[in-house]
Design goal:
heterodimer; A: alpha+beta; B: alpha+beta; three-stranded antiparallel sheet; two-stranded antiparallel ribbon; 33% helix; disordered C terminus
């Protein structure tokens, strides 16, 4: 069991230290199996540029994107769909 | 990269009208290194880069049902899109008063946050530099409050307890305070206010991530 540096249980957290210890031991075993399937989030793997280019092309070719919210609302009302509205720094093709 | 996931593309095409807005001139927009479509990308944690990307789900009248700041893993994004669809059922329920709709919106957000699986919470931890920034603030809603349980996530070495919440939790808490707001009235700047404004993981640095895993073409997050 690891504690992040400087992390503390809040003083008002319920339970005695013994109860807390038991809880943590239980929790540890409960998530042990899950841990093996969880990628370490800090690894931040890189995706090669060729893959990025292919995926960007897929995104811009396979999805029809509106540039106007009014147009999106009109289409959504006509088709009874919700609107997926993306804000991003740069262009949709990935250029910033 | 997230949005090019096949399942996500199918879902977007079948169930949503998609739209895009370049926010480079917005005051809340962060700074970024220069990128081209053919430069490598970096996979990161849910909610990283909140000032540069925001994913809104709007009802067909433009009401904000959900807003996810920054990067999101495709599976987690799909999970949140389904949640937004459930909120739309509340929004369009003609039997409910506005007051009841808002109450249900708030409850639904808080309940959904509690139900997030451990692996999703683990994928949603703050980046180190963002956590440092939040810890440096006098007040931050990322801090675990009095009476709240510490955050549990999984690392390669086992369980980790923290006094800082994960982004997936804070997103729902912030949304709970913004029930069915019109898109034009949504305070994006306040909503995405966490972490550093400049987000640059030095993707173009040839020495960055030496020896780390390189992802192949797949539907990885």
């Amino acid at each position: 069991m690891l504690w992040s540096k400087g992390a503390q249980l809040h003083p008002t957290a319920k339970g005695t230290p013994e109860m807390l210890k038991r809880l943590m031991v239980g929790l540890f075993f409960a998530v042990l199996a899950a841990a093996s399937s969880v990628p370490a989030a800090d690894q931040s793997p890189k995706i090669p540029s060729a893959v990025v280019e292919k995926q960007v092309k897929k995104l811009t070719q396979k999805v029809q994107w509106c540039s106007s919210l009014d147009e999106a609302k009109y289409k959504a009302q006509a088709s009874k769909k919700l609107i997926f509205w993306l804000h991003a720094l740069g262009d949709l093709d990935g250029t910033t | 990269v997230t949005l090019s996931n096949d399942t996500l593309i199918r879902t977007l095409n079948r169930q949503f009208v998609c739209g895009f807005r370049n926010i480079k001139d917005e005051p809340y927009c962060g700074k970024s290194g220069q990128h081209d479509p053919n430069t490598p990308a970096v996979l990161t944690t849910n909610g990283a880069g909140p000032h540069n990307v925001q994913i809104f789900v709007l009802a067909s009248d433009g009401t904000v049902l959900h807003c996810l700041p920054g990067f999101w893993n495709p599976a987690d994004l799909l999970y949140e899109l389904k949640f937004a669809q459930s909120l739309n059922r509340i929004w369009t329920d003609t039997q409910l008063s506005q007051e009841k709709k808002e109450k249900r919106f708030k409850e639904a957000n808080l309940q959904h946050a509690l139900a997030h699986p451990l692996d999703m919470r683990t994928r949603s931890h703050l980046q180190g530099f963002d956590e440092k920034k939040e810890r440096g603030k006098g007040e931050s809603d990322f801090r675990v409050g009095p009476g709240q349980q510490p955050t549990v996530t999984v690392t390669r070495r086992g369980l980790k307890l923290s006094d800082m919440k994960t982004v997936d939790q804070v997103v729902h808490e912030r949304m709970a305070n913004r029930p069915f707001v019109a898109y034009d009235d949504f305070d994006v700047a306040a909503y995405v206010d966490y972490g550093k404004l400049r987000y640059d993981k030095h993707e173009n640095d040839p020495n960055r991530g030496k020896g780390r895993k390189v992802m192949g073409l797949s539907n990885q997050p």
